[in-house]
């Protein structure tokens, strides 16, 4: 599991949702291929019912213990880790996804007073800069943190839904759940968590209550609709499994190892129990027990790429690079298009000194997902080790640009521009970064 600081999305304004309570707080994404796959499995039937593409709409996790979920464009739904851990059933989590999907399908984003398209931070840097950009936080669970500030008034203007929008999203979301056979009573259970929030002072409210206005009438409508759709519910063992796996893995990384070991088997799934035990042992630096547990999980699901990926992480963070490369390599064979797994494999190859091969996999990772700037950092290292100093400077410049550090980006882009052949693709990319850095400098003045 990687912690990555979220810096830019399609618009700088989009950062405001994450800083409603504390404008100077750091923003972090939790990137884990296993959890993201699980969330996608849970979201797929809801997104299809909403007329959205499951392959285009990503469900991303924010590292924040508060309860919140939000959207900023048509292609991403953000969920706070605290909200995921608070959910007791897959239907509760799917109701949140359905509600946010309804905001997208109903066009609520387009009615907001801030035009996101006019706030792109570095046009011309490609899909990586148009997507949620990030800066690596270091190995394991360490996370870097740089403050992003914004005025509370602007935040609320951009992210607060009107009551009319909320009512429409409630009705649409419940309809999507019913069409997908999901228990609509999950929506009632979620809304029950937030009842009474509006009578609290602003500082005591959960972010979700501040951006999604609640009322007694609204709650009664949700109850009535949920009961009307209750007969549409169909059992879904796969949803039960993937919900247990996502929540189980997240809690194993975020709770104390002793807590995890005590509750490892609470999901009822033997492989998830073993996976959670592996994480807890790894966090205690007991590598032998961690590997024994994850190997036992793999024995139960031998074609599961995410268990091999977790084994690779355990070995990598234990500095057993050759073994980590083998584990990641098996994960790549089983999930050859997964950007996070490709990036981790490239990182392991780089640690082994297989620089050219590492660069190939890192490039493949970046082409599929431009959000992981750990990949860009590793790419810069790979270029530097092969004597490609101009490309190393360019990739570093792009990484800084994605993180919002445009002054640093400009310095490295100038260095890249001086070293790369004039008119080449790399040189033109450097000019794009320079233009963004210069525009930012002019605004500061």
Automatic annotation (TrEMBL):
UniProt record, GO biological process: proteolysis involved in protein catabolic process
A GO-annotated cellular component: membrane
UniProt-listed PROSITE patterns: TPR
Range of residues in the leader sequence: 1-26
SMART domains assigned to the protein according to its UniProt record, in alphabetical order: TPR (SM00028)
Cofactor(s) this protein cannot do without: Zn(2+)
Alphabetical keyword list: Hydrolase, Metal-binding, Metalloprotease, Protease, Signal, TPR repeat, Zinc
Alphabetical list of Gene3D superfamilies matching this protein: Metalloproteases ('zincins'), catalytic domain (3.30.2010.10), Tetratricopeptide repeat domain (1.25.40.10)
Matching Pfam families: Peptidase_M48, TPR_19
Domain Peptidase M48 residue range list: 38-224
TPR repeat coordinates: 305-338
InterPro entries: Mito/Outer_Membr_Metalloprot, Peptidase_M48, TPR-like_helical_dom_sf, TPR_rpt
UniProt GO MF annotations: metal ion binding; metalloendopeptidase activity
Matching PANTHER family: METALLOENDOPEPTIDASE OMA1 (PTHR22726), METALLOENDOPEPTIDASE OMA1, MITOCHONDRIAL (PTHR22726:SF1)
Protein's UniProt name: Zn-dependent protease, contains TPR repeats
Source organism phylogeny: Bacteria, Pseudomonadati, Pseudomonadota, Alphaproteobacteria, Rhodobacterales
């Amino acid at each position: 599991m990687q912690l990555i600081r979220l810096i830019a999305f399609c618009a700088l304004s989009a950062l405001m949702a994450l800083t409603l309570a504390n404008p100077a707080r750091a923003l972090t994404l939790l990137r884990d291929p296993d959890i993201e796959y699980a969330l996608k499995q849970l979201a797929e039937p809801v997104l299809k019912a909403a007329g959205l593409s499951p392959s285009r709409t990503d469900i991303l996790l924010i590292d924040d213990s508060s309860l919140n979920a939000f959207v900023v464009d048509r292609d991403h739904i953000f969920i706070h880790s605290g909200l995921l851990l608070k959910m007791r059933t897959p239907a509760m989590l799917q109701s949140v996804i359905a509600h946010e999907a309804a905001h997208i399908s109903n066009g609520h984003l387009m009615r907001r007073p801030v035009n996101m398209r006019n706030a792109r931070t570095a046009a011309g840097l490609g899909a990586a800069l148009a997507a949620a950009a990030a800066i690596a936080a270091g190995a394991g669970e360490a996370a870097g943190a740089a403050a992003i500030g914004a005025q509370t008034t602007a935040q609320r203007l951009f992210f607060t839904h009107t009551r009319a929008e909320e009512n429409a999203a409630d009705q649409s979301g419940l309809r999507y759940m019913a069409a997908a056979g999901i228990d609509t009573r999950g929506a009632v259970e979620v809304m029950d968590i937030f009842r009474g929030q509006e009578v609290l002072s602003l500082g005591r409210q959960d972010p979700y209550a501040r951006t999604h206005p609640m009322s007694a009438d609204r709650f009664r409508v949700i109850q009535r609709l949920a009961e009307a759709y209750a007969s549409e519910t169909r059992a879904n063992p796969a949803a039960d499994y993937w919900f247990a796996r996502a929540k189980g893995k997240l809690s194993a990384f975020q709770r104390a190892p002793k807590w995890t070991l005590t509750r490892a088997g609470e999901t009822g799934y033997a492989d998830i129990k073993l996976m959670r035990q592996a994480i807890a042992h790894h966090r205690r630096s007991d590598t032998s027990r961690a590997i024994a547990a994850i190997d036992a999980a793999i024995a139960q699901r031998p074609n599961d790429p995410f268990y091999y990926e977790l084994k690779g992480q355990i070995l990598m963070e234990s500095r057993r690079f050759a073994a980590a490369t083998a584990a990641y390599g098996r994960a790549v064979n089983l999930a050859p298009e997964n950007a996070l797994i490709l990036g981790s494999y490239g990182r392991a190859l780089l640690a082994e000194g297989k620089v050219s091969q590492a660069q190939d996999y890192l490039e493949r990772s970046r082409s599929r997902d431009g959000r992981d700037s750990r990949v860009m950092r590793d790419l810069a290292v790979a270029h530097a080790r092969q004597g490609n100093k101009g490309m190393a400077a360019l990739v570093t410049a792009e990484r800084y640009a994605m993180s919002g550090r445009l002054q640093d980006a400009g310095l490295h882009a100038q260095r890249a521009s001086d070293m790369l052949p004039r008119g080449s693709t790399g040189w033109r990319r450097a000019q794009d970064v320079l233009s963004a850095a210069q525009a930012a400098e002019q605004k500061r003045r």
